[in-house]
Amino acid sequence: RRLLTDMELIFSASILAAFLAGMVALFAPCCITVLLPAYLASAFREKKNIIRMTLVFFSGIAVILIPIGLGAAWLASIFQDFHKEMYLIGGSFMVLLAVLSIFGKSLAMIPMLKNIKPKLSASHPQSVFVLGILSGAATSCCAPVLAGAVTLAVVSGAFWKALVVSLEYVFGMVFPLFLAAYFYDKFKLEKSKIIQGKIMEFRIGGKDYFVHSTNLLAAGIFLLIGVTMVALGFSGDTYWAPSFQVAIGNYLNKLTISFFETTKWIPEAIWAVLIPGIFVYLVYRAFKKGREKKVNDQKEEAPPQKSCH
């Protein structure tokens, strides 16, 4: 009985530790360099259903990090051995997304130049999912992130516990993005003039082309991070990070340890329910928002009914 109680305490504490470690990992050099700009660019393109797209982004990261957290060290070694190639491929993909963003296209659509205005409600789940995979691959190369995921998985003891702990780790990493998406959705920021933007018209070679301002901004972010990744890939210094970023990471690490020590008095079972509960709520809100959007779109597309007199 004593042994079972100790394992339950370790597992419950590991959930909080994994969640906090994931949030700190967001600021690791390999992580924030790719993950945060990629997400911001995706958010500018999406505008609506942003919680749902954050969930898609989370799924892409989880595809890479959860197997590593469950002990697939060979997967991490692949990314470490081909870190340079990963940056070159990822950077090229970002440049491609920059081109697609300009014309309001996604991976599921052939980027054809058409003399039409892009639809403001178009979503890009394929692009966001691939960005999540790239972010997960880049993150796996960060030693603190990888060590944290593997260590927490080993401490949990059983496969299903390791799976839950790994999920909490990835959720912690994306939680600041979920939080931003939640308030973005709650306060309906997509209706603001800055987010709605405007259609910009360009005339090239005697033809008129229309580009949405937010798509243009997203393209600029994608292009900047893509060129940066390619440059770092060719230089071989893919672990580079400015000193202020390292300082922020160290500060957050100390802050997390302090928080973990301060909250020891809270029953461990609360964290085991609270953190997964937040994730379930965000999933519910994402699908609820999707259903509301689908109903509204159907109402807009429905032909007006003629009244009989």
List the helices and strands and how they pair.
Elements: H1 2-25, H2 29-46, H3 50-69, H4 73-81, H5 83-102, H6 125-140, H7 143-156, H8 159-186, H9 193-196, E1 199-204, E2 207-212, H10 213-235, H11 243-262, H12 268-301
Antiparallel strand pairs: 1-2
Helix pairs in contact: 1-7, 1-8, 1-11, 1-12, 2-3, 2-6, 2-10, 3-4, 3-6, 3-7, 3-8, 3-12, 5-6, 5-10, 7-8, 8-12
Summarize the structure in words.
Helix content is 74%, strand content 4%. The chain is mainly alpha-helical. A hairpin with a 2-residue loop joins strand 1 and strand 2 (207-212).
Instruction: Calculate Rg over CA atoms.
Output: 22 Å
Fraction of residues in H or I helices: over 70%
Which percent band covers the strand fraction? under 5%
Query: How is the largest sheet built, in terms of strand order?
Result: 1-2
Mean pLDDT: 74
Question: Spans with pLDDT under 50 lasting ≥5 residues?
Answer: 1-13, 109-122
Given the structure, what is the number of helices? 12
The shape is: globular
Q: Which secondary-structure class do the elements indicate? A: mainly alpha
Q: What order do the SSEs take from the amino end to the carboxyl end, as H and E?
A: HHHHHHHHHEEHHH
Biggest beta sheet attributes: 2 strands, antiparallel
Distance between the termini: 80 Å
